């Protein structure tokens, strides 16, 4: 969701940048779309839906409005209207790779992995798409369980484009732990830490697992203590407590 949320922020920028001389209804629709996106970013989904539906009444040809409405439905767990609005958005503007990425993430979340990855690949083939590492990373996430080797290829493409991209690095850590390739997991943990990205419970837990498997119990313990101290209510902290006995000094 973090990647998808980051992608949604770009919709707000697109809404703000789409101003200019227009008819009264089109301008009103643009303003309502912008307000709807802003409400959605703040978690006010009902208000967001109302503004976006009003925008469509004023201008039913705005692809951005459909994309934003799809995101609102997705956040509410309403899959059918979310998919319908994503498809409508892309039918109006089939070259919007930001929406391709968002729709791909939606499809993968619904278990439609092959179709979802195809949208990611369409996005990365678009030379105008400014964040291809996001789509490559999403493709890796989508295929990590189904085809780990293919997932690794996608993640490596993300890191080729942006070697310090934290989301791709964290997914490579998870993939290496999944493959029990703990030395490489350690290396990617080091790269993640060097990227300056904030610690996450997932990375700390996977780092603890990798160091424990490699027999470096001091390093493993440090990650365990950090996980317990910084993210005490996380699922990873609960899993750790079931696996290890960690007593802080």
Automatic annotation (TrEMBL):
Residues 1-19 form the signal peptide. It comes from the Bacteria. SUPFAM superfamilies: TPR-like. The keyword Signal applies. Pfam families: TPR_15 (PF13429). The keyword Repeat applies. InterPro entries: O-mannosyl-transferase_TMTC (IPR052346), Pilus_4_PilW (IPR013360), TPR-like_helical_dom_sf (IPR011990), TPR_rpt (IPR019734). TPR repeats lie at residues 29-62, 63-96. Keywords: Repeat, Signal, TPR repeat. PANTHER family: PROTEIN O-MANNOSYL-TRANSFERASE TMTC4, PTHR44227. This is Type IV pilus biogenesis/stability protein PilW. It comes from Solimonas fluminis.
